[in-house]
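Fold sample X.
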Amino acid sequence: MDRLSLVLVIIGALNWLLIALFQFDLVASLFGGQEAFLSRIVYGLVGLAGIWCITLLFREREKRTT
């Protein structure tokens, strides 16, 4: 679940970068606009993934011995 959430957060971050640099919303262009049902699902999943990733900040790190 952690990796999937991180992938979705990275996708969201790259989409925001495209919006900032080129005023191009990749998610909206792929799924039919910002108001399209599929776009809203993707935006929702990215948002939920961001909330999940907040938990990564508060987890204790595992000590690895090699």
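Fold sample Y, listed below.
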Amino acid sequence: MEQPHIKVGIMAEAVVYFSLDGTFQSQPAGLPDQEMMNATIREGHILINGKETGKDTILFEPVDPSVSSFHLHDVTIGVEFHWERKESQRFRGALQLRAEEGKVQAINILPLEDYLISVISSEMSATSSMELLKAHAVISRSWLIAQVIKGSRLGQSADAYQTIFETEGSYIRWYDREDHHHFDVCADDHCQRYQGITRQTSPLVEQAIRETSGLLLTYDGEVCDARFSKSCGGISETFENAWEPVVHPYLQPVHDVASGERPGSLTDEQEADRFIRSSPPAFCNTTDKRVLSQVLNDYDQETTDFYRWKISYTQAEIASLIRTKSGFDFGEILDLIPVERGESGRILRLKVVGSKLTKIIGKELQIRKILSHSHLYSSAFVVDKMGDGPIPASFLLTGAGWGHGVGLCQIGAAVMGDKGYPFDAILRHYFVGAVLEKRY
């Protein structure tokens, strides 16, 4: 197997502003070559600086990829998350512009290992421990190749990939690959953070990529869909509880501790309540800023409470929020009732009881979306209703963890690396039964 080239979807806007640093060949030839350029759409064709190209796809390919780069301006990062913002980003490799549904789609095409250098620096600090960097290099590489394989299989399947299941009394949805057309992965948290060579890298990152080159996590010969999140909150979640109902034996509940007393099943409401309201020992239960700075970039460090957190909404706030984010008018919110929890205590199905409507919402990310202006930290929470009378005056959510909780816990892995665990032991801890295999 040779090192693959991949396509990363960076942005899609009515106008994409970009600049080229170095010598690039364009297809078609003869396009404008100015310090700052823009791409727009007219009648399904791309215009460069207002000049009609007659094409719906344009490619700018570097003559020497080692020295040339391109800039994309006003790229949105942290889409719909609490740290959402725009920034200019610089990339190696080729730039492809596509006309797609009235917008210009900007795609970066580059070798997989070059992509990984950026991912590791984008997902965490480039000054992280070597063992953490190696572990993350392996899972990021494995996850990407698994997505390429999955995308190929979906493309060959006669069945539509369905992610929404709606009845009169429920709305169940998960978010995965249904909106990724013409590229393998996106550049934001929906997939893996990829911000080109904008983030500072280091010789350690390049060493971690080099020393694990072509190394993948596999299970029964299949490349592992190696997921990860910021903080599992003490116990990791199963794949099928966050995404499609497919069981991956290596993505099962893991207690994020080396040893010691462990709670009962968090699928039980009373056990989940006790666990979430407490702060049990775990690798990811840390406030060590030195270790956290290895995992959290500057905007991530704006989040201070992630292992255990609280958020409060007035009645007016939560009613408006749920109506806006879900598209359903529940009226006044009377109750939020967990119907089903996963192994980590994350709510999979939540009954929203309103004065006008009652409906079950799932899965975990959909729940997080309707209960926050961006995304709730996780769906592992318990609810306290405040005020007298049948209509609560406010709701207090007490929660655990940050993210979906499936697979590797980034903060837990950082602590393990800091404690001296080698990268393969970190991987064995979070991906039980998976093995390391060099494929190229």
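Sample Y note: The mean pLDDT is 91.
Also: The CA atoms of residues 309 and 399 lie 5 Å apart.
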